[in-house]
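Regression test attached.
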Amino acid sequence: MLRLPTFEVVQPTALEAALEALAEPDAVAVAGGTDLLPNLKHRLAYPRRLVSLARVEGLARAPEVEADGTLVLRAGATLARVAADRRVRTIAPSLAEAAGRVASPLIRNMATIGGNVNLDTRCRYVNQTAFWRSAIGGCLKSEGQVCHVVPKGRNCVAALSSDTVPVLLSLDARLVQRAAGGRRREIDVASYFHADGTAHLLREPGEITWEIRIPPAVQPRRTAYVKWSVRGSIDFPLVSVALRADLEEDRDDAPVVGWRVVAGVLGSKPRVVKVPPAATGAPLADPAVAEAVAEAVHRQCKPLENVPYEAAYRRKLARVLVRRAVARLGGRDTAR
Amino acid sequence: MPDDPKKPGGIVRPGADVDLDAPQVARGQWLDGPPSIVGRTHRKVGAMDRMQGIARYTDDRKLPGMLHAKLKRSPHAHARIVAIDTSKALAMDGVFAVITGRDLPEPYGIIPWTKDETALCVEKALFVGDPVAAVAAVDEDTAIAACDAIEVTYEVLEPIFDPEEAIFRGDENKINPFARRGNLTKHVHLEFGDVDAAMAAADLVVEGEYYFEGTTHAAIEPHCALAHYGADGILTVWSATQVTHYLHRELARVLGVPANRIRVIQPPLGGAFGGKSEPFDLEFCVAKLAMITRRPVKLLYTREEVFYSHRGRHPMKMRYRTGFSKDGRILALDAKTILDGGAYASFGLVTTYYSGQLVCAPYEVATYRFDSSRAYTNKPACGPKRGHGSVQPRFAMEVQLDKAAEALGIDPIELRRRNHMGENRVTVNGFRVGSNGFLECLDAVERASNWKEKRAHLPYGRGVGVAGSTYISGTNYPIYPNDMPQAAVQICLDRSGRARVFSGANDIGQGSDTMLAVLVAEELGLRLEDVRVLSADTDLCPVDLGAYSSRVTLMVGNACLQAARRLRRKVQTSVAKRWEIPRRRVTLAGGEALDLEDPTRRVPMAEAIAWAEADHGLLGEVGSYNTPKDRHGDYRGGTIGASPAYSFTAHVAEVAVDPETGIVTVETIWVAHDCGTCLSRRVVEGQMEGSAYMGFGEAIMEQHRVDPAHGGVHAGPSLLDYRIPTTLDTPRIEAHVVEAPDPNGPYGAKEAGEGPLHPSIPAIANAIYDAVGVRMDAMPFSPPRVLEALEARRAAEAADAVPPWKADRRGEG
């Protein structure tokens, strides 16, 4: 079995104590640990102190709906809980779907929604043992100076591999970030990521995600999460697209008035796909609508060989799966 | 109960759904003989310990003062070791010993003619991950830090990853220093009959090139070894091995310790599948480090290290030409195969033979030639995996048959029936086949799958495919030539009414201890729970060769029957004496001794055994087994593939292929397997299901390979990147047990652990063809590859080069 490096663990119960502990140098927050601990076993970081968020009061509180309809998830809610929660399933079904497709049941029982939002980027040349990486001389994200995905590339393109981030972005979610000294800020999920796989989160030092706020729909809508991986469980996504169609009325056959389509597992940040006008004005069941959305995804989403599967195939597959998902939203099932 | 081993007569066969805790047969309810436990459903020996988490695997063992060992590995795929500086590591607190290749220079190898590896590299490192030094330290973290402190100076050499290039360039760039002929481990060329003439006369010649991607075992328990060197000079090694005896021999040779001072113990094993069937570096290293430090030393591989030890299936490039008559008979088969062996020979000499020797049966092949070459390459070494060497050629063979069936307009099952070789026949390459239930297997899967209906009516995108196979029930000869028995056991009865079976065989999860217990219980009339199988400890047990080539049930089973029959006779004699009746009237069944002519007269076995112990002294008997020597032809290599009995299998697979994405969903696999007499139904079914599952994973998703573009690193040495199917991915598997008892098997039993895997892959390939009209001749049948084939077919259809597939059975989708 791979060994963990040695570190100190603190388990505060008060949020402020946790945030103060995180303000120390070399301290790293850990919630479920399902992303961090394997990465530590792979020696991708050597934190001096882990600050466990598991016992922080209020962090794991059940999802709530505020008076204006905003769905509030505390970051410490497990993915299993998010996937099963009645409010989430009603208000944000694509989020419940995505949370329920992360990894395996055992991992979802440990992993938190906040952890999934803050999941580190992944790459076939990074998420290996230190010995393995030493055989290729490391890379931009580990011990080296080169990129093995984009030869001569100076920018790390490790893949955003969270299942929930594209969905949250498609739902215009906002994050409430907390840091020591009572600092609190809100940021759009859309603004939380940038295209550098070595530091893809615009997270300030010592900051944790406290809440995820999903605003109420201003328009009737239909949503879906499209995930493909080789196996039905365990795997990170190889195709990951969140779909949100805003409708004129709350009927499956109402005309679409707008789209929010977001893809993951490309580079280090989620990509918001620009959907052309051809995809609106007609109902979801109109094949032209599905085709236009799928075509836009295909044109704008170019997977890289950063995750262990053929990029060209992933691109083709995204197009087919998105087209089918749109058709399904419109009540047509074109999958065999 | 019959004493005739050929007939399992008088067996009561209830259905498979039996309450395991219910009394086995109610008193006085004999249907056609005394109660029998053969063929029933039993709780597997040791199963409850595993289910409850109390089985103690090798890594669960801890000894006082135990040290932990770690291996330092080469980051280069091919490099000369110029110098190793261990001084910094040795100076560290908590480090007890550091060894390098020079401390264990004696080469070893499971096959006596290809001893080509050392516990640690001496001269050169041959693949990324080849171990060059070992450390024993007070704990794992210290050992890891000490490994990091070892400084190795390498002269990096050019690696070769392509097997054909390796053979071609063997003179100028020889990989393995012990190799005799460049980079060629073994070349086999055998011809039976005039292939060229038969091919020329054939009505149809099917030619195909096939590629079998390498796969690995992925046993859940990583390799682990623990050594203790006692003050009495006895070296004890506990190891997760499936070949205690061969390990014992090689430890003696490499360490220079006499075999009679070494004890090897195999604790319960968490899977092996062939991946633990030879000695490994860690076993020598812990033994050597224990001898140096005089402390117990343990080494547990990480999952990554399991991938480096590998010994999985060889990638094979196979070029097949098969000649047929108009009515579908196989007139000629000409096979040319390149095996990519990796850095060491392992079982490769034998694998090279197996790549050709087992492909003919169950069919009558009139003339046959095969030419196989195994290459050394700078990759983790390949070796035996469930269905050693014969799974790959079976893929080629059965797809060839499918292609012929189509070309000749014959149903693929019918084509196989026409070529059925039958029982008591000799194959073209000289193997004597006894019982043969292949036709029944074909019938069973045809019926169960509703084959005819599905072939005729399944729409475009759905299909069924068939494949058949044969496998050995043990290899006829031991790995090192000798005239001693192939299997031996000792059985003791005592007055508690219990039998203890001392067997050197390795239960690796396949259930062999259960098979032995069933045989002994049956023969001695004991209840299954009254038989204790004490196995795989070289101090307690007679020599057995281990768990490989599906040998244990047949060989050790026969040895058990011999010993048990000797004991039975003693007990019968003592009971007969007390009842004053002839011995023949006494039978032992259901935990009692009974008078066959007066079933009201009975005595519990414990008492009967006590009488016998009073008459004969301690009740212990030995039994041994040796193979018949008339099973094969008289030519070099003719012994490889020879077996006392052959099992037969047929599969039908039903698949759905998504024409837009190339994603193949295997929905159902019907498996029919002739295991001879079925000794324990659920264990047999479990082996059939596990085999089909494993073959399915190899067919659809598994890829064991290195990355030549990055210096030959393993493409993903983890169970995240090396994907094996989860329960969600696994098809419905339906096991149909077919019984064609073989006179050479105990009560007629043959193997069930490896044979049922073989048809998985070609049945799926053939089903994909039936579904969408594309031939998948290279594995795995992953979505990108299937989609590429579909796009090529669509282009050809658009160009009118081929007709649209299932044009009359397409929906609108």
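Expected vs. actual: identical. Chain A has three domains: 1-54, 64-118+159-214, 221-329.
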